[in-house]
Amino acid sequence: MKHYLLLLLTLLTFVSCSANEPELPEQPQPVQPGEGSDYFSGKKVLIAYFSWGGTTRRMAQQIQAITGGDLFEIEPENPYPTSYTPCTEVALEERDTNARPAIKSSVANWDEYDVVFLGGPVWWHTAPMILHTFAESYDFEGKTVVPFTTYASTYRDETLQAIVDMTPDAEHLEGLGLTSGSINGNRILTWIDLLNEQYGSLHPGEATVPMDGVVDTI
């Protein structure tokens, strides 16, 4: 009985490999895509993300559709297991050993990007260790980082903060965490409009487009 309860607790506390990152059949809600030049004073935008089962990828694609930025998927050199339980075991070992999993490819023309959306799911109460590999592979000085995450029920704020902490040389705008069912084009559009306003406050000498709406507190 104790062994069964321990196994159940382990599966419940791993907050992403399955519950966070299922591949869902429904399409994202349509939005009016923004022109890249309409956001962040026309600065070049990168959306870098890690996704195990597809949920974070869907959120990244919504961000890309609105900002006109470039997508970069952070793919491990050694793929994670596709089955839930083996994936939890690998992810826990990486977290506990402070691992830095190797990434398959690198961002071309990194220096050209000014705004970097960086995201992944919640894995074992925090960001996946492969995001640390990515953050330590590039110079973030002069960049503006926007954290984002997908999660099942908890540890959203801790994961967003982990992404901030791993990019200390960058400026940061307000992050967003969404569950699989709450990935909504209009909601992401409202958030990005707010980010654009925040970016204008950080760079008051640069023109930004007017904003409408208020994003929910996260």
Q: Could you tell me the strand content as a percent range?
A: 5-15%
Task: Kindly report the oligomeric state of this protein.
Answer: single chain
Uncertain residue segments: 2-36, 207-218
Total helix count?
A: 6
Radius of gyration: 17 Å
Q: For this structure, what is the CATH class?
A: Alpha Beta
- Please indicate the count of domains: 1
CATH architecture: 3-Layer(aba) Sandwich
Shape: globular
Q: Let me know the average pLDDT.
A: 84
Strand count: 6
Report the sheet with the most strands, covering strand number, pairing sense and barrel closure: 6 strands, parallel
Looking at this structure, what is the CATH superfamily? Answer: Flavodoxin domain
Along the chain, the helix and strand elements come as: HEHEHEHEHEEH
End-to-end separation in angstroms reads: 39 Å
Q: Briefly note the CATH topology name.
A: Rossmann fold
The secondary-structure class comes to: alpha/beta
In short:
It contains 6 helices and 6 strands. It has 218 residues and is an alpha/beta fold. Helix 2 packs across helix 6 (185-202).
Topology:
Blueprint: H1 2-13, E1 45-49, H2 55-67, E2 70-73, H3 84-96, E3 115-121, H4 129-135, E4 144-150, H5 156-165, E5 171-172, E6 176-178, H6 185-202
Parallel strand pairs: 1-2, 1-3, 3-4, 4-5, 4-6
Helix pairs in contact: 2-6
